[in-house]
Amino acid sequence: MIENADASLLRAAFQAAPEGILLVDPQHRIVLFNRACERLFGWPARDALGEDIATLIPDWPLRPSEASAPALARREDGTALTIALSTAIVAVGNAAFVVATARELDETELLRAEREGAASNFQRLVEGVSDYAIYMLDVEGRVASWNRGAQRIKQYTAAEILGRHFRTFYPPEACADLEPERNLALARDRGRFETTGWRLRKEGTRFWAHDVIEPLRDAGGTLIGYAKVTSDITEQRRAEQVIREADARIATLIETVVDGVILTDRQGVIKTFNLACHRLFGYAAEDVIGRHISMLMPAANAELVQSFFRSSRASGDDDRLGSVREMTGLCRDGRTFPMDLSIGETVQEGESVFVAVIHDLTERKHTEEQLVQAQKMEIVGRLSGGIAHDFNNLLTVIVGNAEFLSDQLKARQDLRSLARDIGDAGQRGAELTQRLLAFSRRQTLKPVEIDCNELLESMHKLLRRTMREDIAIDTELDVGLRAAYADRTQLESAILNLALNAQDAMVGGGRLSITTANVLLDASYQLVNKDVRPGNYVLVAVTDNGSGMPKDVLDRVFEPFYTTKEVGKGSGLGLSMVYGFVKQSNGHVSIYSEPGLGTTVRLYLPAAGNGRIQPAQTSDAVEHLASRGEVLLIVEDDPFVRSYAVMCLRSLGYTVIAAIDGAEALQILDGETHIDILFTDVVMPGGISGWELAETAMARRKDLRVLLTSGYALDTIAGRSHGRADLPILTKPYRKAELAQRLRDVMEAPPSGTDC
């Protein structure tokens, strides 16, 4: 009875307990479930008994057998609640049962549990991070906590570093500069400070670190310490440095290559436009970036390039990719030039881009034209030489027999006269064949040292008797002229031929000017005239102020039998003979002419005893003539002469702006760009001559200096001008030293626009 009374008492206490009490068997089934549990979980005891405990407490299988901690529970209606759950193991017979007490947590307990749980979880998280050094500093900067990542990166254990100042991690130079203290102050003042720099490991080695420092404050805002996160980004920095250096090398390569390089996207929109492209097309990079590459070509070529980008986007492949095509480029000023265009594809930042490489073919085309012309002249010369040789044999028979008949026909004066006419005609034929031999360079030359000044003085009477009375003859001879090495007779014949051609060009009279000078044709001049051998030469120039010649005539003047004269008034062999003689003498011929202005033919004969190739004047020799920071505007329509002049001027230190004609030059002068010197050709297309340009420019800019240049004789140019005759003129071709000297003279003289 007593035993039953105790059991009844226990059951009453079990049911009356204010907290839920339940017993769970080894199979996780509920075997006891008091009234407090019914109220807590919303389950009647009859329904709960025998249920799996996980139905009420889902994470039961994961919890330790003996524990006390908050748990998530589920009521019968499905709603959730947080309970304080305590469990313990009790033995019933040979089986291990779990007895649990449960009660619902109030709001205060929930908040405290959440904070404790969050702190515990955060602590475990921080301790488990190995990729970052995460640690706390006190207000003085001493280390107050230390995680696994800090130990891995900085190599200190917690016992070794706790309590030490964090300046331990900074290199000596940073400590001397008070960088650690400054970083803490910046974090305190800004609320957060982020930086990168070198830091030290325990053994003294350095690593590149990314540091973040945040101040910690209590609820009242008082500073209580700092949180610090450090990551080792040495490898990242090294990789970025490699990429930056590679990008810099590529950018430098793109900007320094002589060919144009353009990067576009898959639609052909320009992304990169290098310096060589600026020189080729005349556009600045900002003018074309964002526009389609087809803008740099005439309409026909532009459509071809646009079709390439359309087909590449559609098919992802095109047989034009990587191939080289000859196309035409379109400059900003409307000029065109031949070019090779090759397009390749690459990937940049995951996107396909196209790389277009443009090679200027202008010089190659010019060289090819010169080669074709030289080959044509060589072929014609060989043909002419062969004809002349055979024709001379025939003429020998004709002239000889005519002389024999003349001797035999003394009694028949009428027949003897006919024989003499035959002989005279044969002699004229012999002279023509001699000219053919001169052109073909197969005549026999007898080169000697010649004083060209003395030769011209001796020819003056002959020229005066030969030329019409309405033609004045002037000579300007260099008193220090070197001796030339050539055939004297052939040189006399060449000068006479040039004088007769000049006479024919001056129908209503005019002026014939003959000048001599010592010149050095250097490697720079050879860039424009491929057939010239650099060295010292004696120049003989013959100039007239006659009708002049258009370009299509100039291109053929040295061809044998080519003439613009009426039938019967010229053989077309005069200039070709001059050309052949000078070339056979290892010299050079140049001709300048313009309709209405006249013609200048220059003969460059090797200097005697000093005709070997001479080095170009050294930079030291012209160093005192170099630019002193001046800006120069050059106006020249010939692309090869312009290219040569720009190269010389830049090597002298001038800042060079180039224009192709007077109209473009005036546009530049109307702008705000400061210009010290105007260096302009006299004869240019477009309706504005160099004289007119100079007059207009000096009127607009009073402090402007002007230097003119021309391939014509100075007196002829001055005589035809309507502008100021006191402007300095540099005669073409000019050497770098001559150009430097004249420019320095111009800069040291008063401005061209002043009256002195």
Automatic annotation (TrEMBL):
The record's annotation in Pfam families points to: HATPase_c (PF02518), HisKA (PF00512), PAS (PF00989), PAS_4 (PF08448), PAS_8 (PF13188), Response_reg (PF00072)
The domain of life for this entry's organism is Bacteria
Record's keyword annotation contains NAD: no
> Which of the seven top EC classes does this enzyme belong to?
transferase
Catalytic activity from the UniProt record:
ATP + protein L-histidine = ADP + protein N-phospho-L-histidine
| Stretch forming the signal peptide | none
| Domain Histidine kinase: from-to ranges | 386-609
Q: Does the keyword Nucleotide-binding apply?
A: yes
Boundaries of each PAC domain copy? 193-245, 320-373
Domain PAS intervals: 6-51, 118-189, 246-316
Tell me where in this chain the PTM 4-aspartylphosphate is found: 681
* Every Response regulatory domain range: 631-747
Q: Which InterPro entries match?
A: CheY-like_superfamily (IPR011006), HATPase_C_sf (IPR036890), HATPase_dom (IPR003594), His_kinase_dom (IPR005467), HisK_dim/P_dom (IPR003661), HisK_dim/P_sf (IPR036097), PAC (IPR001610), PAS (IPR000014)
* Enzyme Commission number, as recorded: 2.7.13.3
Keyword terms, alphabetized: ATP-binding, Kinase, Nucleotide-binding, Phosphoprotein, Transferase, Two-component regulatory system
Specify the protein name: histidine kinase
